[in-house]
Structures are given as C-alpha cells and as structure tokens.
Amino acid sequence: MVQNYRKTLKNSIVLAWLIAAAIVAQSAYSATLESVSIKDTLSLDHSLEETIFLSLSDNTQNSFLLTLPSEAHNVLVAGKPAIVSQGSVDVPLACAACKVNISYQLPNAVINKGETQNLYQRTLDLPLQAKLLSYEVWLPEGTSVQDQAEGPAIVPLPSVVKTDGKHIIIAWTEANPALPKNYLVRFSEEPLENPELLNELTEWPIWALVITFLIIGIAIGITWHAHYHKRHRETELPYVPASLLSPDEKIILALIKKNSGKMAQKEIGKQLNWSKSKVSAIMTALEHKQIVKREKSGRNYSVTLQKEVEL
What we know:
Blueprint: H1 2-14, H2 17-23, E1 32-42, E2 48-57, E3 63-67, E4 73-77, E5 80-81, E6 88-92, E7 98-106, E8 111-112, E9 117-124, E10 130-138, E11 144-145, E12 154-155, E13 160-163, E14 168-175, E15 181-188, H3 196-200, H4 204-223, H5 225-233, E16 239-240, H6 247-258, E17 262-264, H7 265-272, H8 276-288, E18 292-297, E19 300-305, E20 308-309
Parallel strand pairs: 1-10, 16-20
Antiparallel strand pairs: 1-2, 2-7, 3-6, 4-5, 4-7, 8-9, 9-15, 10-14, 11-15, 12-15, 13-14, 17-19, 18-19
Helix pairs in contact: 7-8
C-alpha cells in the first residue's frame, strides 16, 4: 500500500507539467498556450485514462518531445498509436495555430483507503502560463463522492458537479490559473440504492420530464422573485442569489424549504426519484458553498438549510 501511495503521488505530480515542460524545453521555441483541457477517467481497478487537449497559437516549432510517466501505456497522439522511445513520444505540430490531442493510460493512479473508500489526488503545474484551464475527473461508474471525517470530499471547490447518468463528473474551470494547485477527490465504491435509475436517466422521456420541471421551476422563480427578495432581508439567514445555484441545486433546496428547512438526505432522493450518487454529489457541492449543513444520523444524513436562497 505504501508503494502504491508513493507511485501514485509521483504520478500525480508529473502528469500535467510534463507537456508544458517539453514545449518550453527549447529556447528557440515560441508559442502561446491558449487553453489546456484535461480529462481524467478513473476505473475501479484504480487505473487512469488521461486525455489532454492543448490549443497553441504563434507556434514556431515543427514538433516537441513529450516525456511520459514511467508506467504510461496505450499512448495515442491525435487518435493514432504513438511510438514511445526511451519514455518519450514525438508530437508533431507543423502549424502556427495547433490543436494537440494526447491520451494514455496509467495504473495505480488511485489510493485505496479501505474496503470501499478511495482517494485520487494530483498536482497540476504548467511552466507555460495557460489562458484557460479546464480539468475534469470522471469517477468510476456506480461510485459516489465519499464523505469522510478526515477532510473534505473535493478540494478545491469545483466549478460544477454533474452526472451523465452513469458517472459523477467533477469539473474545475479557471482563467489564467495560479499554479501549482493540488486537486483531491474522495469517492466510495459502495453499491447504489437504485443503479437501474442511472440507465433510465439517459432515456428521452426522463429528460423531457426533467426539462418540464426546470421550466416550471424557472417560471415560479420569476413570479415569486420579489417576494423572496423581500423575505431574505427579514431573515437572519445569509442570502444566496439564484445565479450561484445550478438547476439541480435549486430543485433540492426548494424541496428542503418546503419541509421547513430540514430533511433526511435519503428522503430527498426518494421524493425526487434521484439516485443516491446524484443526491450525494449535489449535497456535497451545497455543503462546500455552506448553504446546507449535514449531520450523520445512523446510515443517513440530516440536512439543514443554513442560508436563505433565491429560487
């Protein structure tokens, strides 16, 4: 386990900056790094598939040499298998404005913290300043964000937590990012209460129903905006504007408010007919925003509204 931890920590530090280091390795090279998009897809066997998209402008080089982590395999450049020589691969550019797509797989990327508890962490550092950084972590199918006493489940606070119906997706987006920065996600492999619901979410009737509820919710929010705006001034709870909330967060908060500001997390999922993983991910995001407070109650959580919200 110690060996896996050291190996994972080493990989987490070197993954992202290797590309930028290779780009700036030659003093004659000149380019502007317009954007970096990194997608890390985690698997239950603790491996990682990383896909990196680079957008360059004002490029003057025909190629750059990319150094890979020592255990990287199935390396693809622009979707084609790449020849790895002495731990490096040559990435062709031959363009002033370039779009570069690189992917590879890496074992032992996740630290096992128990029978079902896992930790994924990595440090991003780009020697070449990027104008825009987009970073996504896709948790393994059927897993959920893990609440633990030893620390927050997600660090830093994500831009958005969402789902495609099978995976929990944690995303950070930042312009002119201040790096290096450490990213951490704790997740659980505990089985979902209703896993078949995830597949149902991909069917069009379900999405049609969700969109209908969203439209109704927006209409109600507009109608009662003045009422809630006045009400928040009369309450002791701090006020949170609607612009800071996602549609799913608004739906959950509306349900909690309807139940006098306090509900069991399990009951929220039951009433909305949402999966345990989806509710857990959204509640984690709301807790990080300090809008709700969760307290352990047996195998469930008691959720209490901490701030007045505009819905």
